[in-house]
Amino acid sequence: MPRRGALPLAALLLLSFATAAWADRVALHAATLRAGEPLPALQGPAATDALRILQFDHAPGRRDRDRIEGVGARILGYLPDDAYLLRAEDAVLARLAALPGVDLLTDYRPSWRVAPRARVAARDAAGPRTLTALLADGAPVRLRADQAAALGARVERTADRERRPRLWLSAPAGALDALSALPDLLWLEPAAELSDRMSRVPWIVQSGIWHSTPVWDHGIHGEGQIVGHIDSQLDDTVCWFADPEGDPIGPDHRKIVYRGPQIAHGQTHGTHTAGILCGDAAPIDETMGTQFRGMAWAARMAHSDYQETGYDLYGDLVTHYEHGARVHSNSWGSSEQAYTALCADIDAFSHDYEESVVLFAVANGAIGAPLGSPENAKDVVGVAAAHIEESVGDFNAHANGGSGPTQDGRRKPEVFTPGAGVWAADSEADCGLRAISGTSMACPSAAGAVALIRQYLTDGFYPSGAATPADSLAPSGALLRALLMNATVPMDSFPPGYPNDVEGWGRVLLDDALFFAGDSRELWLADRRNAEGLDTGDRYIYRIQVETAGEPLAVTLAFTDPPAQPGALTPVVNDLDLEVVGPDGLFLGNVFDVDAGESMPGGDPDALNMVERVLVKAPTPGEWEIRVRGRRVPLGPQGYGLAVNGDLGESVTAYLEDPAFVRLENPFPNPFVAGGGATLSLRAELRADQSVALRIYDVAGRRVARLGGAEQGGEVDLRWDGRDDDGNPAASGIYFARLETAGGGVSQAARILLLR
Fold first, then answer.
1. What DSSP designation does 668 have?
2. How far apart are CA 280 and CA 288, in angstroms?
3. In terms of Cα–Cα distance, which of 473, 491, 322 is closest to 401?
4. Whole-prediction pTM value?
5. Domain 672-755: assigned CATH number
6. How far apart are CA 585 and CA 98, in angstroms?
7. At a CB cut-off of 8 Å and minimum separation 6, what does 663 contact?
8. What is the pLDDT of residues 160-174, one digit of tens each?
9. Under CATH, which architecture does the 4-110 domain have?
10. Could you name the CATH architecture of 195-475?
């Protein structure tokens, strides 16, 4: 059988290879591709650039990425299942096709680059509709804008940058096919049309006890923190934000370190949400006192107005980051329910700038109302609104906010904070207040709470529970999300069952997660950045001691998934799993007895969510093992944050497991035509120099052949000529190969079809 690399170049782009053993499709919004089946009939123009789709027959990892880049191709993104979008010139296609485990290689056709809803919107619109054209990183934006104009589009704006460049353009329906062939185009979708999402909050969020603010009482008010705030216009002259010294907006201003260009859509909403986030009138008007201060009232902010159509969210988030913001509050969105360019902007920014966490108000609505966008991004914290009055459920009643899951099944919203009748800054008075309700009011209080969590860490409260400058920790956004989820409590007046897609993980209660000296409920954290993260098959293990059953054991894993590739049917890229093992059994992340409101043994790993939790209300004292597994990491390495609360011992053992598992590549060629000197290649990667044994079994489990000997560490290529241990030709049929090492490693079984 000829090697794949021997196929003519045209065949490489028109045919897919043998049926996949692991993944059976590449799932795009506009097409489904299956290895071993003819590609869909060509519709529209052919590709004019070097963008390709390559699929493996296994869950790809670091070795596969290295091989792709080693032949001269560039990975642009991941596509489900087990596929990459590449930039690969014609000269390297044969080498790509010859890589181990490649099942499909084809052009990324222009017709696959247009969102189906873009065609519907263009057909139904009375005139040209604004579109967002996402381009590959490094694309020559000005040239592509000129080319788009030549194809009949009117280019409204551009984002000319190396990372996540794009065009905003309008075009009639008849121009979409021509525009789909624009070189470097990744995805064309309708530009989102955005709008706003319309005391007692501090103590409800901090303790739930009347006027008890334990976080503030420890001197944590937002000092040293800068928060990002994107909303409608901000009135920076009111007492909540004005500078008493008259310093201009910038690094010396009391409250505002940056303000972007003003866009006309009113000041009421943006001023009010900013007041909830970090407003403080006391330096201007002492008569206002401290009652109506924002959640992180000592923090400063970077503010931008959002643009209602064609908004460059990634650009503004980066600008705020460059001005020091690490926590970002947003109370606006669209009614679109798909994973949009705005969702990908959040995920890309969160992954590119690891210390950041982005929060969004979910769409307003009653229980069961749909979520919008971009609160359905993977790495965002979606915030809904709880009531604020004790008389309507002790802060635990649903006030506003849509329900999950997302279209692809992920849990949303994540958390609730008060959002009904919240008194905060009024743009129509120099130093006034007004009460407004909505998820818009809940999001800034949640973002302010995250800013307080961040100050807790940067001021060195962890691990001692007292401010210790030498213990200052600059946390990742993943760790902040993990701590926020650990600081939640069920909302009893919600539909039965916890957790669920109405309340998510519940109402924020900071005192449940932050440890201060003298508290009985302790805290332990792990923060691994992406550069030191996990790849496919890796597993990091932590061993802790639970002292008593008097405190619930709460474990939360959060990670920042890379952005989905535009056009992918499902947005999930990497999959980390949480496993907690103790005297009470093995608990998997997000496997809950919802009636009891706690984790239960058994179940299946969660392959969808970027937050996984284990909660054991009365854990048996003894040693508990917390495992973080890289189940599928096509775009790695993948970092994570881990937060643990409970009655914990002082010592923790942590290590990267040297797994009793050896990665055995899929056999090649397969089917294997034996005879004439042909051999079957079985490649593996060894962690050290050692002896290996490759055993071949028939379908009845009888050993047919044993190969092996001493091998050097690294990648090895083991060969079988199709003969048994006695040198006789093995009969045609199904066989299985398994690799064992002297170090105790055992591979998965690899299926072989032998032909004669």
1. B
2. 9
3. 491
4. 0.84
5. 2.60.40.4070
6. 45
7. 63, 537, 684, 685, 747
8. 999 999 999 998 888
9. 2-Layer Sandwich (3.30)
10. 3-Layer(aba) Sandwich (3.40)
